[in-house]
Design brief:
seven-stranded mixed beta sheet, 15 strands, globular
Length: 322
């Protein structure tokens, strides 16, 4: 079969190579899955760079979430077992962790429903306890992770402010349903949030960016607000002023979604059932901006790493997908 493999760490476009390799063999408790669609995630770029918390042995295939078909014909969502990641024609994955792909979504959309939406749901509901009528501020609102949070926030009855970089991304955030879109390249985030909220600020901030985004968030978070720390796509890990959190009465909430698989696996299945319901009702629908062939996977991962994409890029092997 064909599979992209990383033979040395570096930038995705430079280190990913399309190889002919044997099909992976399932270990005990695993199943083999034919890949119908593989979503591109920021962790894929970090894996290529050797900067992710998991460092599979070289060579390995990146690709951390797929929609695929099991050998008994089930259409499923899975997190492939590294080093045999999703940018390939076949993967293996733990049988106990498979989730049914929603009938309301095509393969590319189903592949994109998992990590980003699970992260958004746990961040907004389990960690921040977002309530209807509250104001939610979402950084990188036009990206894959941010767009999921925007949709989930609207589905929860929140007023959603989306922060983007540039006119094209701002237009995407508007189409997603943001009540206010702030272009960080031309506008002051904190000033616009305070103006929009009558000086109150945002009750919940969803931040997958870090760096300057966190600085702006701390300036405009509301009394008893919650800042959910999702990731550091900017490449800069902020050093929060804890004295500032004290005097303004706001909370900093860390979110590592992957821990729930180890600490509370039943919660992941329950979340998926809720996401499936929301997808069936049309309340959420992954924003798949581009479906790329398997041969274009390395370029897709690089473009995501460079921050030039909107929505989700999904790799669809030849002859796969619906």
């Amino acid at each position: 079969m064909q599979a992209w493999r990383v033979h040395t760490h570096g930038e995705p476009r430079e280190v990913m190579r399309l190889d002919e390799v044997p099909e992976p063999q399932p270990r005990e408790g695993e199943v083999r899955i034919k890949v119908r669609a593989a979503n591109v995630n920021f962790p894929d770029a970090l894996l290529c760079r050797g900067q992710y918390q998991i460092r599979p042995p070289l060579p390995f295939t990146p690709g951390v979430e797929i929609c695929g078909e099991t050998e008994d014909g089930r259409r499923v969502i899975a997190n492939p077992s590294l080093p045999h990641g999703g940018f390939a024609e076949y993967v293996t994955a733990p049988a106990a962790a498979l989730l049914p792909a929603p009938d309301s979504l095509d393969d590319a959309e189903a592949a994109a429903l998992h990590i980003g939406y699970q992260t958004g749901w746990f961040g907004l509901h389990r960690r921040a306890r977002l309530q209807a009528g509250e104001t939610l501020l979402v950084h990188a609102a036009a990206g894959g992770v941010g767009s999921a949070a925007v949709q989930l926030g609207k589905a929860a009855g929140a007023t959603v402010i989306g922060v983007t970089g540039g006119k094209d991304k701002a237009r995407t955030a508007e189409e997603l349903g943001c009540d206010l879109v702030i272009d960080r390249t031309t506008e002051d985030i904190a000033a616009r949030v305070k103006e929009f909220t009558g000086g109150r600020g945002a009750d919940v901030v969803y931040d997958p960016v870090g760096g300057d985004a966190h600085t702006a968030s701390a300036k405009c978070v509301a009394f008893e607000g919650r800042i959910v720390i999702v990731g550091f796509a900017s490449g800069t890990i902020p050093t929060p002023a804890l004295s500032h959190a004290l005097v303004k009465n706001y909370s900093l909430l860390g979110l590592h979604w992957g821990l729930y698989a180890a600490k509370d696996p039943a919660s992941i299945a329950a979340c998926h059932a809720e996401l499936t319901r929301l997808a069936a009702e049309g309340a959420v629908k992954p924003l798949v901006s581009e479906r790329v062939p398997l041969t274009g996977a390395a370029d897709a991962v690089q473009r995501l790493a460079d921050g030039t994409t909107t929505g989700r890029l999904v790799v669809v092997p030849a002859g796969a997908g619906r």
